[in-house]
Sequence to fold (197 residues):
Amino acid sequence: MTEELRLVIVIGSVRDGRFGPVVAEWIAEQSNAHGAFAVTVVDLAEFDIPLALPDSSPKLEGDSYPRPDAMAGLTALLESADAFLLVTPEYNHSFPASLKAAIDWHFTQWAAKPVGLISYGGAAGGRHASAHLENVLSELGAVTIQQGLTFANYYTAWKDGSPVDSESAGYAKAMLDQLTWWARALSRARAESAYPF
Ligand SMILES: Cc1cc2nc3c(=O)[nH]c(=O)nc-3n(C[C@H](O)[C@H](O)[C@H](O)COP(=O)(O)O)c2cc1C
Fold:
């Protein structure tokens, strides 16, 4: 299979002083080195993502769902993806509202696509955030993959833009190998027939 697979890495946190871009930059480097994907990093802080949704549902309106003009670039990037890596912190045992809003404004853009989860945080390391994302994404027909990365106590687990644990690059490769397998399988399946919602 020679077609280029498109990987979109989403930075889920948007607050000032956030750590998310450090994690996203590292996993983007790992993804580029892996070589299976054309990699794009999407920073949710760069888009207008209101918390108030319109009086309708993307599940009912599909491609004609009314979104703010300033969200068009985000929608196009999500649409173009064959696979996602979501980089999420943990806020109060879940993932941030910024990421939930970006998810909820979309629907078909997630469907029948694989998602790898990379979380970080304090003591919990984002494990609750990842578990909640698995639940949410299943409703959108996305496929969360087996392998993922979790970084507890990120402030000691990272140094100079990389994880301190030297095993991390190997774990990232294992996740990217699985993501590639799923991206190939699901892009073939989407080309063959529409996902049956
Ligand atoms: C409102 C809030 C709630 C948090 N709750 C948790 C938590 O439940 N579990 C955890 O491990 N870390 C928790 N943290 C720590 C964050 O995961 C950590 O500050 C992380 O850097 C936040 O990601 P960000 O810097 O990209 O925004 C919380 C942080 C904030 C701001």
Q: What stands out?
A: Residues 117 and 148 are 5 Å apart (CA to CA). The chain has one domain: 5-192. The two ends are 27 Å apart (CA to CA).
